[in-house]
Amino acid sequence: MQKLALLATLASSASAFTAGVATPVAPSLAASRASMLVANAVVATPPEGFEGAVGAGTKKAGMSVSKIVGLGMLSGCHIGFGAFLMLSVGGACPGLAASNPGLQKIILGAFGLPFGLFMTLMTGAELFTGNTALVTMSLLEGKCTMGQLMKSWGASYFGNFIGSVFFAYLVFLGGTLGPTGGASVAVAGAKTSLAFVPAFVRGLLCNWLVCMAVYLASFTKDVVGKMTCIWFIISAFVALGLEHSVANMFIIPLGIFSGAAVSWKAFLLKNLLPVTLGNIAGGALMVAAVYSWAYGKKD
After folding, report:
1. Inter-residue contact 185 to 260 (CB < 8 Å)
2. Are 267 and 192 in contact (CB under 8 A)?
3. What separation in angstroms does the CA of 1 have from each of 4, 6, 8, 15, 281?
4. Burial 18-35 (b: 16+ CB within 10 A, else e)
5. CATH code, domain carrying 201
6. Is residue 29 pLDDT above 70, yes or no?
7. Which of 26, 144, 219, 265 is the most buried (most CB within 10 A)?
């Protein structure tokens, strides 16, 4: 009798289980589960990512000048740290540069500037080159004014310059690159020898990539995702030999402090001016305007 009772119980349980499996999930429950999956996604869709970037740009546009300058100085130091590492590792491989220049360029890009941008994004510091895309997106979507855009660009640029030059002087005093400044002297000379058009175009291409790194990093919700976006793209622009105005605010002054035959006038007019204009075009046109057209308001 006990065996019969046990078999009956098992049969009843199996029947209930089968019925439960066969019963379709209610549409409302399925929709709820789908919504939860979307909410828990670690990467935003392109339209959602654009809206998030616009929100970030709007927040930046609303900040006070003093706060933007202060956070800009921090970002200048962050990018300076990245360029410092770049010169210390990839810039200190003359033998490799001669025998395998492609590999040396990869090392130059991989170890340095990615971690500088990573520090800036994770701490909320203000980087001029990134603001040329994010704040411009906010302007194009009607979320901020032209005055706010100019405030963001001008204050972040000024802060980046002060922080970068200050950090360059600290590195010079520290002497870790040697008494002659390591690769900074040769790099400063090469950068200030560019004609206007090549410097402008290299600046445009550079900030196209930098702003794509900033833009795509804003799509992700976890640290690993943000670092992945930053590392691959920033490594690429360095390896390609492109020109970043804020990185140059550190590298060229460090070369000048270390004895490079480069004047401050040459730094400002022959490199920083064309590269900055190129950076603006790359961020505002190739990233902000393009994605505003693709995913912005359709008035």
Report:
1. yes
2. yes
3. 5, 9, 11, 21, 87
4. eeeeeeeeeeeeeeeeee
5. 1.20.1080.10
6. no
7. 144
Question: Is 18 within the bounds of a domain?
Answer: no
Instruction: Give the separation between CA 119 and CA 78, rounded to whole angstroms.
Output: 6
∠ CA(231), CA(228), CA(211), 5° rounding? 65
Residue at 1 is within a domain? no
Q: Is residue 195 part of a domain?
A: yes
**10 lies in some domain:** no
Domain total of the chain: 1
- CA-wise closest residue to 258 among 87, 93, 117, 104: 87
Longest dimension (CA), the chain: 103
- Residues spanned by the domain of 226: 46-295
Q: What is the pTM of this model?
A: 0.85
β-pair partners for 43: 220
Instruction: Kindly tell me if the per-residue pLDDT of 36 is higher than 90.
Output: no
Which position has the token pair 């400044």? 181
Chain segment 111-155, per-residue pLDDT in tens: 889 999 999 999 999 999 999 999 999 999 999 999 999 999 999
Q: Which two tokens stand for residue 90?
A: 């990839």
Q: Please state, as a whole number, how many other Cβ atoms lie within 10 Å of the Cβ of residue 193.
A: 13
